[in-house]
Amino acid sequence: MRYIVCCSDVRPGLVSQSVSRRYQNEAKHRATNLANRQQNKPRQQLETEQRDEGLKIAITAENKGFKLLEKMGYKPGTGIGKKGLSV
Question: Which of 9, 26, 63, 66 has the fewest CB atoms found within 10 Å of its own CB?
Fold first, then answer.
């Protein structure tokens, strides 16, 4: 009887897949939180930096929106609208 009491139950199907998946997701979440905290920048500042980086890059001809503009008569370097004024 003492032998049965001291042993732990380690059957392979004891932890279901959903529980193990939840543990894996929590571990990933903790790792990303730790990486974000190491940057020591507020969220708003990170968002503005990422937005500024995105705005510096010009839209390429492979972009779907750019292709639609070209079909409507847009030419690179010109403005959009009735008068064709660029900003």
Answer: 9
Q: Are 70 and 78 in contact (CB under 8 A)?
A: no
Domain locations in the chain? Answer: 34-71
pTM strictly above 0.70: no
Q: pLDDT > 70: what percent of the chain?
A: 75
Highest mean pLDDT among 15-19, 31-35, 45-49, 74-78: 45-49
The rounded distance, in Å, linking the Cα atoms of 50 and 85 is 28
DSSP string, 20-40: HHHHHHHHHHHHHHHHHHHH-
Q: What are the CA-CA distances from residue 2 to residues 6, 8, 10 (Å)?
A: 6, 12, 17
Token pair of 83, please?
A: 């008068």
Distance CA 20, CA 27 (A): 11
